[in-house]
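Retro notes
What went well: the complex prediction finally ran end to end.
Inputs used:
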Amino acid sequence: MAAALTADQLIAQHRPTLDQALEAIRTRAYWSPHPEHPKAYGEHGSLDAAAGKAAFDALLGTRLDLDQPGTDDWVGGEVSPYGVELGVTYPHADVDVLLPAMRAGQRAWRDAGPELRALVCVEILKRISDRTHEFAHAVMHTSGQAFMMAFQAGGPHAQDRGLEAVAYAYAEQVRTPGTAEWTKPQGKRDPLALTKEFTPVPRGIALLIGCNTFPTWNGYPGLFASLATGNAVLVKPHPRAVLPLALTVQVARQVLTEAGFDPNLVALAAERGGEGIAKTLAVRPEIRIIDYTGSTAFGDWLEANARQAQVYTEKAGVNTVVVESTGDYQGMLSNLAFSLSLYSGQMCTTPQNLLIPRGGVATDDGHKSYDEVVADLARAVDGLLGDDARANALLGAIVNPDVKARLEAAADLGEVALASREIAHPDFPDAVVRTPVIVKLDGAKPDAEAACMSECFGPVSFAVAVDSATDAVELLRRTIREKGAMTVGAYTTDPEVEQAVAEVCLDEAAQLSLNLTGGVYVNQTAAFSDFHGSGGNPAANSALCDGAFVANRFRVVEVRREA
Amino acid sequence: MAAALTADQLIAQHRPTLDQALEAIRTRAYWSPHPEHPKAYGEHGSLDAAAGKAAFDALLGTRLDLDQPGTDDWVGGEVSPYGVELGVTYPHADVDVLLPAMRAGQRAWRDAGPELRALVCVEILKRISDRTHEFAHAVMHTSGQAFMMAFQAGGPHAQDRGLEAVAYAYAEQVRTPGTAEWTKPQGKRDPLALTKEFTPVPRGIALLIGCNTFPTWNGYPGLFASLATGNAVLVKPHPRAVLPLALTVQVARQVLTEAGFDPNLVALAAERGGEGIAKTLAVRPEIRIIDYTGSTAFGDWLEANARQAQVYTEKAGVNTVVVESTGDYQGMLSNLAFSLSLYSGQMCTTPQNLLIPRGGVATDDGHKSYDEVVADLARAVDGLLGDDARANALLGAIVNPDVKARLEAAADLGEVALASREIAHPDFPDAVVRTPVIVKLDGAKPDAEAACMSECFGPVSFAVAVDSATDAVELLRRTIREKGAMTVGAYTTDPEVEQAVAEVCLDEAAQLSLNLTGGVYVNQTAAFSDFHGSGGNPAANSALCDGAFVANRFRVVEVRREA
């Protein structure tokens, strides 16, 4: 057992980090305390590559006992998209025992106040950061992300998003002072004078419903926003991606214990296959906050049915890139090829519809017809993924059979400009690795519109021929308004087109990346600076991260008395 | 037509006020720019008492033409609770014309940015403030409040709440900078560099559904929070309390026009008797925000059905005062008597249940039995209202026949400790003025519990005999949890009881006033300092005013490009 963590220690160690995070969300300049390079780990208590891999290997086939109350069974069954059976089992909870136990420690956690709660959260993130190599393997073998992406997106980038949520939560809670003296003049009479105490109080127990593709990145904002605002958090991972969040819960419980709090403030709700426990938990009266990433259908169900809770959802959307003109044709092609390939297009931010005027596109390399643009893009993707090692490093594995089925069906939707192909993985023969398909659609045809107006999650994109830039802008507007979008991209050298696209994004509340041709991609956002989603279109009802994401996770109770 | 208002003028005139409001919500010390004393008006362009009365009188029997598009009829029919027919008619809107017209000016309003929007709102409030005497009569003759209360609560206090919302809205929008330069080091390679623009964008059209009792005080927070965050606002007043909000809309349209914006950013939706237009408007797709004060039934309906909108509701609650012991018996009685009498108990913050141990209460004047406490309180109310002139000045008129019917039925619920009596009004013979009734209930009896566990809005309070302080605390907890509470009061000299009551309020998110014996009352809150409601119990899903009240009325759209 490590030495107990005192408030003084936590302040000394982590207050500077919290202050830097607070400054970063104010300036939105680049900042991260979590190294992106795998070689940066191995000192100051962090696991290096070999130790991280060993730690992960040691987990395989074991029971991950979190010492939770009400554990009535052990469940598991994750199979890596790379073909490996993880064989880890997790506590299955009797929620009638677990939920009351989670409430027991809430008073002390509330009384700890915003600063100490924030610093305990930073310590949890620090311990997770130290084990980034171990988490990377856990994320890789649940999401199917390639190792480097699992390392970065599942490690430092997820930790950044968690810390960002802690900073927002802290800032929101300290906007109101702890106490105030209120003195109101009464003319010649004595003034009225009151002493007021203000206490941020939690809503209750928060439920985090994790997703398959980004268990940590999409999970940490809600988890840490709720915990930092005084709530207990029950973590219900996706059945295919339990391990990264189970390890997170383990770390959180350790840190809470060491800091003198009840470990049951964070608990895991793993489930049996087909149990569908999220639906049961979501409407329990104890659950007052829900964070969810996943399908529109279940997200809508939660919003409609979990009326006792504040519900934060990230659902499906249809992401568009308008390709109207460019001053860097090769840069555009490379940038788009990377965006379409990364993690086999299995990001909620991956572009799906590329809207290209059928009359072609003006470029620095001369005018390019619609067919030329599509063919050149196909070649760019082919070139990027021509080497199998590089393809494997970029693509990762197909996360589940549904995505594979959609990929295979996509070829029937139109003329295939780039066919998907299988890639063999040198280390994991059972891994399902596929390159993206690009399908040509004529935007003027109704069936094409039906195809491009619904989300086809996975390595599928549509090169949609449109009549004009105006037509593209109008289709973009309709797509965002009706289907939602996590991202929008546009390539144009025409200020009027740029303005028109920007106006649509402002009107429909979508995040826009313009003319990206270098090493930043439309599907990537950086914590502390970029917003992930807007919360203002159907793809998500909240953004990561802003004031609205944290402000309603707690309430402020005032006690006033005469001074 | 007044001279056009420039941004520079607005900054020079109102930026200091905005800055003071921002400082006030941070420190929560006493502050108000709006004078409470009627005699403070009459200079610098404001109407004095005579001019305000004349302006109100001149409105009677007229058509209030707001020059709104889509006006297809003129409707009215307000009858003052003091018996006067106002005879004012208002535009009835064809919403299929009005709503699109309201969207036309949104882009320019969005592009104006948070500061200019805030200062336009401050100018609107300033013009309303100048007409406080006129508004006071409008509030008096729709709500039934006595003149002085209508003047203060409907005037400066409502304006304070509006300004508070403007300050919160402004602060929230400028938390994210307008632009950011983001530069991410890449080791030996060139850094990645992006330029980012962040724009607060409105959700769409906001709907304010006003209430009968506090049209301005309860209406201004939502109206100004929505307008300051870039939304257009459609004001749907209570059919019995149109005039104060119609005048507000008129002022807002004038100021918007003078500042170069589209007046249709604020519009009125008056309705015919029984038209029930709120239900139709609430589910229109253009309506993205709703603020509502009123019955739990309709508030719940809005929350369940207006799914396309952010819904902020203040509904019914059951307010409790625990009377356990006191060091100032007379002060307590006077304070409670005033709280029960003010505006005939027709405040959402008026105490309903007084929980008193059946074994009595320790006081500075010796031990008092339950019966003595109730009798002494009845005497205190009687004394306070013994003089008809003072009674009229405190009580105001009964706002509608439902309240009168509830008051009359209350005497059957238990032993009447203080009977209600009629008071004649010297100026308005038809005014329905009634003193409050106090009914004794035995908390141990099921029918008593049923009575005290439902809201009996109006001049009715229950002196509930409980077994002990512990029993009182437990009933308090149950009442807040099941029925909600806008306010809780407690009188106790016992630190343990105080602690227990405070714990309940922290657990159940209710605002607590302790041992008030002077000139501050449990049913009053001050803008910039006190929260009205908590948003954490069933009485309201939001508090006035905090970050959560404004943060989701807009979204931030980011446009990023390579630097």
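What we learned: Residues 106-130 of chain B form the longest helix (25 residues).
What to try next: split runs per interface for comparison.
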